[in-house]
Structure prediction request, 428 residues.
Amino acid sequence: MADKAILDIDGSKYEFPIITGTENERAIDIKALRGATDGVTTIDPGFKNTGSCTSAITFLNGEEGILRYRGYAIEDLAEKASFLEVAYLLIFGELPTSDQLDKFHNDIKAQSHVDEDVKKILDGFPKSAHPMGVLSSLTSALIAFNPSSVNVDSEEDMYKAIVNIMGKFPVLVAWALRKRTGQPLDYGDDNLGYVENILKMMFKKPNSEYKHNQVVVDALDKLLILHADHEQNCSTSTVRIVGSSHAGLFASLSAGINALWGPLHGGANQAVLEMLEAIKEDGGDTKKYMAKAKDKEDPFRLMGFGHRVYKNFDPRARIIKKAADEVLSDLGVEDPILEIAKGLEKEALNDPYFVDRKLYPNVDFYSGIIYRAMGIPVEMFTVMFALGRLPGWIAQWKEMRENKEPIGRPRQVYVGETHREFKEVSKR
Prediction:
């Protein structure tokens, strides 16, 4: 197999190396293109064919529906590992031993205190503020309370920064919810597991004891694992490119949160639930809406089906579907929304229009249903996505800094006006 590519431009030939990844992905290395060709660049809107980096964190094969973290299949991790184990794996490269996991959890708990002055910032937001805006702002505010820059050449400094944000971020997530619902802020319980503690901070009612539901804890654990990383998506690329300017971890994460906020990225699960609600209000006729989805003249868009990368069934969707069934069964929830979702799925999987286009249910299709059953408001769905994606963002930022990647600076092809002579305002 050739290890180089030849580009012919105006009769001149230029050779560029082809690099091959450990899973046999191949890419043309064009770092030298502009210099070698006297200014020629490539253009690839949306970066559909462009790799921004090499990475050892997540492997994704969209054609075959494969997702692996550090070589481990997502199915195995969701079934056998905890979210904290997966976070450790993503960030440090290996699954932790029992002692390493205990230390990691204890160090995170030791850093979970959020300065009381951060509450004053939270007080300034109206109850109507979108929780993603609140979360992004509070994450940025942490910079002011942790002003020292991280020495990325120091393992100790990097570790301290990592456990610091892993400890504080769930608190900010819970506070964003409680601000929205008008509940007094709650603090964590060091006797609880990481995910169980998140639920306690979110849902403990004043003057009452919090009792966790293990089925709900396990389902949230799986959801967070499934969202933990997904290669170079919009928010992850944002974290890396902001970090490439040597912005700190908190600043880079805040940028990632804002990128995730967009409805084409993290907001998709909220859009799915809103669509299902609209179908229910219109009588719940799934066949009618499948026909609308196929009608090019109809503005209706079927949310939660298809994926920009996966050209097969999203492996995360299978896992989430099972978790959704378990949660709804355990909580005794008979949700018509779930029945509509199942109806849409059945219709799509048996309709040549969707099968031929490989428009299968994706991870967003069922995640919103689980969050709804847990009592999490729709506007908090993307916040929960961010909570799961946190260790992936950290791992990607850490890898980028340790690899000493250059500052991200894309080129463009200018298509505006050519040189024009300036005219005084009186002559225009």
User: Anything to note?
Assistant: The two ends are 62 Å apart (CA to CA). The chain has a mean pLDDT of 94. The chain is about 50% helix and 5% strand. The domain at 4-51 is CATH 2.20.28 (Rubrerythrin, domain 2).
